[in-house]
Specification:
The protein is an alpha/beta fold. It has a single domain, classed as Uracil-DNA Glycosylase, subunit E (3-Layer(aba) Sandwich), CATH 3.40.470. Helix content is 38%, strand content 13%. The chain has a five-stranded mixed beta sheet with strand order 1-5-2-6-7, with helices on both faces. It is globular and about 45 Å long. This is Uracil-DNA glycosylase-like domain-containing protein.
Length: 194
């Protein structure tokens, strides 16, 4: 695990605003990648604030801070309210619960958080961290949500099978995810790996 930590530090540095992944414990134990385009929630807390030597990533502590920061963050112009967790986060949590005991690494092609994909500058579209994770963790199954993640993975052709699904934040003309659909995707992951 220490080798992984040092290698990750060479990619993201010590005081990183990047969010390369979220998982509970060692990323090396994760059989599944849940992959999007880039993180949507900027946080004041950095990735390494939740890394525990000999354990890995402390998702419970991260999730507490994530909810706190969402609660106290000022609303964007035109917004009237903010949910405790984003639509994407709600769906991911249901999928991860449904896939248990198989561990999931929640990651993105690009690690820099922006409120929307359009805000991610071309100069910040560096997939080296994702490629490092793909190589080092070597997942057995990948769930790609959203066209951008799917297009990238079609081109990359990872060794693991890829399940393509609509973006977890889908709304409007795209059918929003239901809790039941998210749970079913988690069960499908378990069936495929079981």
């Amino acid at each position: 695990m220490e080798d992984f930590q040092q290698a990750l530090k060479t990619h993201i540095g010590d005081c990183s605003t990047l969010r390369p992944f979220v998982c509970e414990g060692s990323p090396l134990d994760c059989k599944v990648f849940i992959v999007g385009f880039n993180p949507a929630s900027n946080m004041d807390a950095g990735f390494w604030d939740f890394w525990r030597a000999g354990f890995g990533f402390d998702k419970a502590a991260w999730f507490d801070v994530y909810r706190y920061e969402r609660r106290v963050k000022p609303l964007s112009p035109g917004k009237k309210r903010r949910t405790a967790v984003s639509r994407t986060r709600r769906i991911i949590e249901l999928i991860v619960a449904g896939a248990a005991p198989f561990k999931c690494l929640e990651t993105n092609i690009y690690s820099l958080p922006t409120e929307s994909a359009k805000q991610l500058a071309a100069a910040d579209r560096d997939s080296a961290v994702f490629e490092f994770l793909l190589e080092r963790v070597n997942p057995q199954l990948i769930v790609a949500h959203g066209r951008d993640a799917q297009d990238y993975l079609r081109e990359k052709r990872p060794a693991a099978p890829v399940i393509e699904v609509r973006h977890f934040s889908a709304r409007g003309k795209d059918k929003p995810w239901t809790n039941a659909e998210a749970c079913e995707l988690g069960y499908e992951i378990k069936r495929r790996l079981g």
